[in-house]
Design brief:
This protein has about 280 residues and is mainly α. The chain has twelve helices and three strands. A three-stranded antiparallel beta sheet has the order 1-2-3. α5 packs across α6.
């Protein structure tokens, strides 16, 4: 960035184009990390990651819980790395899958005197996992990051010309706009989660069944008694999260679209646009 600015000071005609994939990462990170709800969720994932990293005993208990319940557990991944979008999506996916098992694991460990040194930390994590609003946020951001992750993969393939970029971005915007009108029950169903006034249930593949053909796979249901809010409260909280979507789109446009004068210059370079190449 600094080098290009210095070069343009002495060569005003120079057109600088940064890696589109990196610009997308910066755009999403700018929007999400300044949002209090996402920042809280991100920090929660970081704490879970380090809690497991520092306790082999806890890792073993978590794996044992999965075996007892007949479900494969997923390792809670690191979410604070350079690949922001990929790290966040992987972390949220693992949290959604592991949610019920984490609750059962932490409850068992809190009741076991052998975990006394980390009992307070596990109690705090369990309290957050039982908060229905955290689940609403997790599912919302998981849905938001999926089309952005798909766009990121396209950009990484380096198969897109500059003139193809706006179309790819607009395609992601269609999915983001669809999230604006998606009801919470639909978001729940996409993650195979059902919710009643007393508990929330996850439909998960039985242990080892991911390797089987689709017709042989079987599911099991795990339930957790959570601190539920009313459907109206969940919908209200979801709507407050949706207010972030326009900011995400605005940041993507700022980062991924060239300034007007550079766009005009690039458009005048006929040889750059494949559509204008001779056959």
């Amino acid at each position: 960035m600094v080098l290009i600015k210095q070069l343009k000071d002495s060569h005003s005609w120079l057109l600088g184009i940064h890696c589109a994939s990196h610009r997308l990462e910066l755009a999403i990170k700018d929007s999400l990390m300044k949002n209090a709800h996402f920042k809280e969720l991100h920090d929660f994932l970081v704490v879970i990651y380090y809690t497991f990293k520092k306790s082999g005993k806890l890792k073993g208990e978590f794996k044992r819980i999965g075996e007892v319940l007949g479900v494969d557990v997923k390792v809670m991944p690191k979410v604070h790395g350079t690949r922001f979008v990929t790290h966040q999506l992987r972390g949220l996916s693992a949290l959604i899958h592991n949610w019920a098992m984490l609750c059962h694991c932490f409850e068992n460990c809190i009741a076991d005197t052998g975990y006394r040194p980390i009992k307070a930390k596990l109690s705090g994590l369990l309290k957050k996992l039982k908060d229905y609003r955290l689940l609403v946020r997790c599912l919302f951001f998981h849905q938001l990051l999926q089309p952005i992750s798909s766009l990121s993969l396209k950009l990484e393939e380096q198969a897109l010309c500059y003139f193809d970029l706006p179309l790819a971005v607009e395609s992601a915007f269609i999915d983001i706009d669809e999230l604006k009108i998606t009801e919470f029950e639909v978001i729940l169903s996409k993650s195979k989660i059902t919710s009643s006034s007393s508990e929330t249930s996850w439909e998960l593949l039985k242990q080892g069944h991911a390797r089987l053909s689709s017709e042989k796979r079987q599911n099991t249901t795990l339930s957790v008694a959570m601190n539920h809010t009313s459907k109206e409260s969940a919908a209200t909280h979801l709507q407050s999260l949706k207010d972030l979507l326009e900011d995400v789109k605005s940041n993507m446009k700022k980062r991924l679209y060239l300034p007007e004068q550079d766009s005009k210059l690039l458009a005048a370079m006929n040889f750059v646009d494949p559509a204008k190449w001779g056959r």
